[in-house]
């Protein structure tokens, strides 16, 4: 039975072909393409307002040089947000519960911010490895610690997103299984468990949105340090 709880995190296959790429690209089909009714369509207007709000929040801590990353960061935010929310629907697969995918998103973007800093301001970027006023005997140890903390950033990004979504999905499945099992035995307890399940689902919707925002916000903060 323990294995069945983790079956939801297994990539689906059709005729031996993995469908994870399809599940990643499917959310993009939910967004309409621009046309002559772009502004008069209420749904498109709401989506445009949301895009402007997200972009404004992400670009506030960045200077004008960092605004070149607006399209990348906003697109990533919308992609993660849509995938996380669609993954809460029954009988769906959530690609962002896979550590490999999250690392594939986190590592190249983190590396791009790091290389941007090393190219534009190498002295300032390397200066982050050694805080000002450090005693001389502590310099080698602090450089090693700061280097380790710098290299662990993409891993922290990927693991944070994976762990939060995986834990939420497991909790929902455990409580829903308990609700169904208790229904013929103790209906009252089953109803209370169903209410807890409803509250947990609302919480997971919030977690799905917050984790997508945190993932992109941390990338923007890493970018801020290097421009």
Strand content: under 5%
Low-confidence stretches: none
Largest sheet: 2 strands, antiparallel
Q: Work out the count of structural domains.
A: 1
Topology as H/E string?
HEEHHHHHHHH
How many strand units?
A: 2
Task: Tell me the helix content.
Answer: 55-70%
Number of helices: 9
**Euclidean distance between termini CA atoms:** 51 Å
Rg measurement, Å: 22 Å
Could you say which overall geometry the principal axes of the C-alpha atoms support?
Answer: globular
Family: Belongs to the ATPase A chain family.
Pfam families: ATP-synt_A
Main location: mitochondrion
GO molecular function: proton-transporting ATP synthase activity, rotational mechanism
Can you tell me about this structure?
- The chain crosses the membrane at residues 12-31, 69-89, 101-118, 171-199, 205-223.
- It is found in: Mitochondrion inner membrane.
- It comes from Fregata magnificens (Magnificent frigatebird).
- GO terms for molecular function: proton-transporting ATP synthase activity, rotational mechanism.
- It is a multi-pass membrane protein.
- By secondary structure, the protein is an all-alpha fold.
- 68% of the residues lie in helices and 2% in strands.
- α4 (70-86) runs antiparallel to α9 (187-225) and α5 (99-120) packs antiparallel against α8.
- The protein has helices at 2-5, 20-25, 42-59, 70-86, 99-120, 122-127, 139-151, 153-182, 187-225, and strands at residues 13-14, 17-18.
- The chain has a two-stranded antiparallel ribbon.
- The model has no long low-confidence stretch (mean pLDDT 83).
- The protein has one domain.
